[in-house]
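Example (one chain per record):
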Amino acid sequence: MTAFERKKASSDLAINSTLAEHFGTSALSAEAWLAAIVESSDDAIVSKTVSGIITSWNKSAERLFGFTAAEAVGRHISIIIPDDRLHEEDTIIEHIRGGRRIEHFETIRQRKDGTLLDISLTISPVRDKDGVIVGASKIARDISERKRMAERQRLLLREMHHRIKNLFATVCALISVSERSSETQGSSFADDLRARVRALAAAQNFVLKESESGSGEHGSTSLFGLIEAILSAHQDNDSARIVLRGHDVHVDSSALTSLALLLHEFATNAIKYGSLSVSEGRVEIEVAEADKLVLTWAEVGGPPAHVPIGPGGFGSELERMTISSLRGSIRRDWHSDGLRILLEIPYRHSSD
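Predicted structure:
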């Protein structure tokens, strides 16, 4: 026996001794040791023949795909492949027959109950003792949560970009309003503008504090208070530019941020295109209640309203998402004297 062989035999003996202590057996073969690793892996590990027939299926594969080993072994791997992804199997088999490994291939697979999940696949050819490729081993990792987080991050980044663009539009409008105010009333332009920017900051602080503390009756806050906080920067000294009427209601803190986003969108669009883009324009807001909260936003004294052309930008996408989160509905009517918006929200989000 060579020195290398003696060293390897000693190493194998030490490993088997350790395994014996852990598993209560005298020795554990390399094959049994490998099988134990595969079975206890957090990743789904599956093997199949070159024709796609499943030959092994570990516990994590059972948890991930919903099929037990008894249900999966002997069946074709297509039981977990959606119909529109079946062509991928041909590409995978082509790579395996060529002896090529596939690493971190991101795709979609299907559970036993029909639900889809995002996974990352690593696929390696399996050879027999003569080196002939007889199948493939697959390691599948669920990346659905990572995908969801990436999508949320994408939306947050787009929202931040959108907010920055709207901020510039709002500041430009505030400059114009403050300039007109200083000319007509003799006030300091800088002081007037500074006060309006502070009002914007106060509105943001109001939404943040209400969302964090859930203050108000039963974790809710006044809708009128929210409207006044969000739109105070666009109000004039006579309180005639933003007119609020109707019945005040309390809004659940869970809906507070969504409503604030909607009101901000309405105001920003009014500044860009509607009644708040001209000095004589105003917005009339009326709140009513029946079996749901009904808010009417009417722009008066501005340019004629026109139906926008095209699918809309991120603001439109954000609005759709926000309305969906509130389980509400929105309708716009474009008139020659201004835009009318009807917002309806079920009372799941509000109470007296």
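Caption: The mean pLDDT is 79.
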